[in-house]
């Protein structure tokens, strides 16, 4: 069990900007662990995920520093917004590693960016913890790459089996984004799961990043009369597809089954009532009933005035488990030592639940099937009967 203590009485504000910055001020005798915080807080759909992670990680660092959980060690976030541009992510990683001499990096937001930049950290011996990258094979970049975001291939098959049983699904259509590693990866996982369950694929449609009109693809899908439509999309595109499908007169009995990237508080704001009933899977949801989860939701809501989503929860746990690794390493500069201590954590008590790492350094969290509640604008645990 992790021994990093919680204290929410005094919170230290860690500022960030669209360029690298680290402005926290600590006692003169403190040892400072510099940690790169790379999230997309601009750049379209990516900002829906990046902003929540950034805020949750800053909250965690503030709590840890205020509580003196690491004794004379303080955590300093050196934040950068990569704007969902993987070339910028690469530049940022290079600067964090070479100039800022960070001991670890939290991020980036998108799998596309991670595949481009994580190899730099791997080569330099700097551990990376992702909290929103779910594309398959990401951690195979190397043994310095970890993630608290459960990969799609561990989640979607469970979600699909539930939906098939619940909605008596036999025929499915799929729609996905062509030019994003996460959406392409999600689609590959989805097609494999569909095949393994012996479902009939009646249509596969795709779109390009930036598309906002999906009526042509949805019209083709509607004509095939599927029992379900499977979404390999980011949240913003998912919201548009859900809304436009209802406008095109899709039968209310048609189930919409999403991927991990669809789980965002903004989905309901963007899709409205059309998001009601969407079936997804995740490691956590706002109503997850555990003391750690309830305390996190309350602290996040108090600090930011809005509820956290799954990406905030995964970012928060990434920050705390990294802090525990640094505490065990008792070192603020040695990335390899921090990595080894991180890998040794096997019973971490986090917001997501109690977890360790798989052989591929993915968090060993049990996925949960969720249903979109359009009226309350939240995801809730799927009924079991």
Write structural notes for this entry.
This protein is of the alpha/beta class and 385 residues long. The strands form 4 sheets. The chain has a 5-stranded parallel sheet with strand order 2-1-3-4-5, sandwiched between helices. The two termini are 34 Å apart. The chain has helices at residues 46-66, 86-98, 111-124, 152-167, 181-196, 215-223, 235-247, 265-271, 291-304, 310-329, 335-343, and strands at residues 31-39, 73-81, 104-106, 128-130, 145-147, 171-177, 200-207, 228-232, 255-257, 279-282, 348-350, 353-355, 368-373, 378-381. Helices cover 39% and strands 18% of the residues. Helix 5 (181-196) links the parallel strand 6 and strand 7. The chain has 2 domains: 31-149 and 288-355, Rossmann fold (3-Layer(aba) Sandwich); 152-282, Response regulator (Rossmann fold), CATH 3.40.50. Helix 4 packs across helix 5 (181-196).
The helix tally amounts to: 11
Strand order of the largest sheet: 2-1-3-4-5
Sheet with most strands = 5 strands, parallel
Report the top-level CATH class of the largest domain. Alpha Beta
CATH homology superfamily of the largest domain: Response regulator
Give the CATH topology of the largest domain: Rossmann fold
Proportion of beta-strand residues: 15-25%
- CATH level-two architecture of the largest domain: 3-Layer(aba) Sandwich
Uncertain residue ranges: 1-23
Number of strands: 14
Task: Give me the Rg, rounded.
Answer: 20 Å
Proportion of helical residues: 25-40%
Structural class: alpha/beta
The chain-level mean pLDDT equals: 91
What is the domain tally?
2
Distance between the ends: 34 Å
Broad shape = elongated
Instruction: Give the SSE order as H and E letters.
Output: EHEHEHEEHEHEHEHEHEHHHEEEE
């Amino acid at each position: 069990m992790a021994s990093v203590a919680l204290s929410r009485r005094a919170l230290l504000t860690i500022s960030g900007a669209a360029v690298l910055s680290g402005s926290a001020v600590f006692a003169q005798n403190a040892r400072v662990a510099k940690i790169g915080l790379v999230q997309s807080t601009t750049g379209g759909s990516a900002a829906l995920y990046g902003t929540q992670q950034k805020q949750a990680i800053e909250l965690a660092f503030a709590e840890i520093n205020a509580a003196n959980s690491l004794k004379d060690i303080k955590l300093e976030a050196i934040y950068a917004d990569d704007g969902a541009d993987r070339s910028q992510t690469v530049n940022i990683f290079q600067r964090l590693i070479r100039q800022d001499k960070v001991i670890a990096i939290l991020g980036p937001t998108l799998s596309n960016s991670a595949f481009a930049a994580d190899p730099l950290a791997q080569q330099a011996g700097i551990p990376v913890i992702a909290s929103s990258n779910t594309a398959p094979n990401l951690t195979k970049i190397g043994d310095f790459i970890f993630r608290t975001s459960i990969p799609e291939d561990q989640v979607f098959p469970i979600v699909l089996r539930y939906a098939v049983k619940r909605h008596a699904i036999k025929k499915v259509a799929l729609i996905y984004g062509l030019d994003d590693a996460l959406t392409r990866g999600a689609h590959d996982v989805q097609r494999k799961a569909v095949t393994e369950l012996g479902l009939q694929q009646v249509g596969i449609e795709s779109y390009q990043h930036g598309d906002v009109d999906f009526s042509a693809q949805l019209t083709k899908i509607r004509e095939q009369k599927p029992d379900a439509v499977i979404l390999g999309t980011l949240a913003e595109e998912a919201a548009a597809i859900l809304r436009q499908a209802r406008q095109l007169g899709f039968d209310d009995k048609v189930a919409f089954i999403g991927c991990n990237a669809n789980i965002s508080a903004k989905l309901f704001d963007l899709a409205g009532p059309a998001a009601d009933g969407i079936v997804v899977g995740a490691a956590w949801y706002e109503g997850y009933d555990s003391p750690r989860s309830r305390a996190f939701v309350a602290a996040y809501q108090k600090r930011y005035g809005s509820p956290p989503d799954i990406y905030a929860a995964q970012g928060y746990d990434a920050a705390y488990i990294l802090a525990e690794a640094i505490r065990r390493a008792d070192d603020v500069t040695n990335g390899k030592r921090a990595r080894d201590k991180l890998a040794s954590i096997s019973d971490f008590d986090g917001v997501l639940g109690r977890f360790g790492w798989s052989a591929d350094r993915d968090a060993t969290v049990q996925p949960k099937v969720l249903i979109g509640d359009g009226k309350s604008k939240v995801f809730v645990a799927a009924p079991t009967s």
